[in-house]
Design a protein that fits this description.
Structural class: alpha+beta
Helix content: 25-40%
Largest sheet: 7 strands, antiparallel
Number of strands: 14
Oligomer: single chain
CATH architecture of the largest domain: Roll
Shape: globular
Number of helices: 6
CATH class of the largest domain: Alpha Beta
Strand order of the largest sheet: 3-4-8-9-12-13-14
Length: 290
């Protein structure tokens, strides 16, 4: 089964399909899995503002129950992230955006994501900042405290649309791995991550098709103008005088979907030299930048 998602405004799309499953060995399988014996589950459901596809492989039919259960639990994780971090209805996000100068508790998953955001924010010199310019506060004003607490020292209006989907994919992949799956893939709109079994990624740019092999990596695509972007997502911006991005169509590969997702936004606004530094910091690669 192939899935597709928009890469740019000219109906370019990204297609995801399985590559031949050879020379693949994962920590979840004691020996090389036989492609003909694999038990595979693939489910597609709407979530995180897009169509999400989760695919998982067990070493044989004997793993059927565990693999099916792992896929169902992975979808529940996506649902949980959406409940916490939806830009309008998210429980934690709403509390953060109403909070000024007092300590609040957030879910452990929200705190973990904010910790990563702070890391990318600092590494990018503030280019990646999910705090909208409608409020004076930035990620610099969000202080993370022990025990999954935080305090906003200035009013913020946070929109995690540029990274939450990738983070949810990472959590789903971690769960599939912990459940003993030999391989799997989670594809949510413009973000996809695979482990164990190689996946062929096809990026249709309109006049050419790029082929990218994905194994134990993630790939994220972003476009500055996206007709399919959820209405709640505020788009991409830079909190300085620069009004137009340097690149409008970007694809980045990284070890995690959250990092790949965030770096696509950084690549849009950064110079070539700065992008190279960021990619080196996060062990990422720029696949498309135009």
């Amino acid at each position: 089964m192939f899935t597709k998602l928009n890469l740019n405004a000219n109906d370019s799309q990204l297609y995801v399909g399985s590559a031949p499953m050879t020379s693949t060995l994962t920590k979840n399988c004691s020996q090389m899995p036989d492609p003909n014996a694999l038990f595979t589950v693939q489910r597609a459901r709407p979530s995180m503002g897009t169509l999400c596809i989760i695919e998982a492989h067990g070493a044989s039919d004997e793993n059927a129950f565990e693999v099916k259960s792992a896929v169902e639990d992975a979808f529940q994780l996506l649902k949980r992230i959406e409940m916490l971090m939806h830009p309008v209805h998210g429980i934690d996000l709403s509390r953060i955006n109403r909070s000024i100068s007092h300590v609040i508790d957030v879910d452990a998953m929200t705190w973990r994501l904010l910790q990563l955001i702070k890391q990318i924010h600092n590494a990018s010199d503030g280019v990646f900042d999910p705090c909208l310019p409608t409020h004076e506060g930035t990620m610099h004003d969000v202080e993370l405290l022990p025990e999954h607490q935080l305090i906003c020292h200035a009013p913020v209006m946070m929109d995690l649309g540029g990274i939450a989907k990738g983070f949810a994919i990472d959590l789903a992949i971690e769960h599939l791995q912990a459940a003993g799956c030999c391989g799997g893939l989670v594809n949510a709109g413009g973000d996809v991550r695979a482990f164990g079994i190689a996946q062929e990624i096809y990026i249709n740019k309109g006049d050419e098709i790029l082929r990218w092999s994905l194994q134990d990596q993630a790939l994220a695509v972003s476009q500055y103008i996206n007709r399919d972007r959820p209405s709640e997502h505020q788009g991409y911006y830079l909190r300085n005088s620069q009004t137009s991005p340097l690149y409008c169509h970007v694809a980045v590969s990284a070890p995690s979907a959250a990092v790949a997702d965030a770096l696509t936004k950084c690549v849009m606004w950064n110079s070539v030299d700065r992008n190279q530094q960021l990619c080196q910091t996060f062990n990422a690669s720029i696949v498309v930048a135009e």
